[in-house]
Amino acid sequence: MTKTLLQKTVISISHSPLAAPHDLIFSLLKKCLKTPQLKQMHAIMVKISLSHDSFAVNQFVSACSSTGSMDYAISVFAHLQKPNIFVWNSMIKGFVHCHSYQEAISMYKKLLVSSVSATSYTFSSVIKACTQVFGLSLGKSIHGQALKWGLNSQVFVGTALIDLYSNCSEVINARKVFDEMEARDAVAFTAMISGHCRIGELAFAQELFDAMPEKSTASWNALIDGYSKGGDIEKAASLFDEMSHKDLVSWTTMISSFSKNGRFKEAIAVFKTMEAQTVSPDAVTMATVISACAHLGGLDFGREIHNYVSRNGFNLDVFIGSSLIDMYAKCGSLERSLLVFYKLLEKNLFCWNSMVEGLAMHGHGTQAIKLFEKMERSGVKPNGVTFVGVLSACAHIGLVEIGQRYFYEMTHEHGIMPWIEHYGCMVDLLGRAGHLEEAVRLMESMEMEPNAVIWGALLGGCKIHGNVGLAEIAVKNLLELEPGNSGYYVLLANIYAEENRWDEVARIRVLMRERRVQKAPGFSSVEIGGKVHEFVACGMSHPQSEEIYGMLDEMVVHLNLAGYVPDVGFISEKMGVDEREGMCRM
Predict the structure, then answer these.
(1) Domain locations in the chain?
(2) Max Cα separation, the chain?
(3) Model confidence over 76-101: pLDDT tens digits?
(4) Domain 418-525, what architecture?
(5) Per the confidence metrics, is the pTM higher than 0.85?
(6) At what angle do helices 202-211 and 186-198 cross, to 10 degrees?
(7) Which label site among 56, 175, 309, 484 has the fewest CB atoms less than 10 Å from its CB?
(8) How far apart are the first and last CA of the chain?
């Protein structure tokens, strides 16, 4: 909006006494995209004596909310002598829209001491603010005020209260509000369905969903998400297939559901179907798909998705950027991961964490630590995830003293209480370096019980340094935690084999048979031409299995001719040489 336009607007209004200035102001406010334009509009309002008109100020405040200029709205509001309820409501709603929840609550408190009476729209907005700051006590007080004024049964107020109580884990109160509502629309039903889903009451959620007079897309999405989070991905997928109309949230929810339940191929298949139906994804969808690619190790498809992001005008923001960094690192392309990282104009904590973890994952512990130090110098405050990556980097390259220093700084300087993952990294670090007794002391100092990861890390250290006694203790605890995990039996058997304690090896095998524990076959995957091929040890499921095994046999012949002798001593002295060599080829 130029100065010329400002002058023309003032002249137009002042020379047209029959024109409706409110309508003209309203149409111009809709075109304001930035604060300087709003200031010019305010100047127009002052010029034509509308700066004290509640109707005009109400529209102005709404425009400020849309552009995130609530500070300017405050200054205009302060000069209004007697704002009506519509202006008050616009101010409260504007603060909520701009995520300034405490300011919205403060504005509501000022309204209470004014001579203006609140409406249902006032309560719905301020209750939303309470929900966002988990202000249950204040929310209950506002609920009481709504009851006093007879507005609690209004659909907007009731829906906001359902959200408040559900988000604060008081679903019984939420259901009470829902049951007392005189009229319930699809939004109220969806809010209540989400509340039941949030605490795992899927039967109640399904019952409400079935009782809806007319099911909204949002209600379908809420129930699909609920079943997904409850681990019933089949039911979630069945509901998704039943939907007659799927919006972007529906598709993204289903992609996310498959991904969070480890069904990454299905997640990508849903995305491809979504593409075929010409539904345009958003940044959340793309980040979810990129994450699925990362877990599958599908580098070629990951590159395709990256190209899709670039072609379709998505900004390389911190959300998509951190997902790409993580994806390239997990797919083995550290160079591309670094390229994305350094191309990002803005880097938040997630981007730094993804890159630190990626470097550590690829064994570049020193570079990971240097990047962490650079992150600190840039003013980004680390969190618990950051230190998991840093401690993991120290473990990979054996930096015991540096790892111990970071562990101390994490708790004493950054105020981050150690997670089980941090202890796991430290036990792994100490175990790899041979400080097994120190690792045990650290485990004894933990405020929580060691889990399988902790004992597994200790067992790994015992394997490296041949500490049979401590390995037996570790395995005993592991078998109590995960009695069906064959890996612990096998690892202990290998430790016994390296000590030539073959009777113990035999005992472990008998124990596995008695407990019906079977060794899970090893598997691997490789991507060729955008397709991920999976292989299972001794398996014949791949269509080219015969050719693959034929090539392996040919390779073994050439290795033997070159003088290669496999190390078969750790398997079992009671096996024949051919049998043991065959195992080494598997």
Answers:
(1) 1-83, 418-525, 538-585
(2) 107
(3) 888 888 889 999 999 999 999 999 99
(4) Alpha Horseshoe (1.25)
(5) no
(6) 170
(7) 484
(8) 73
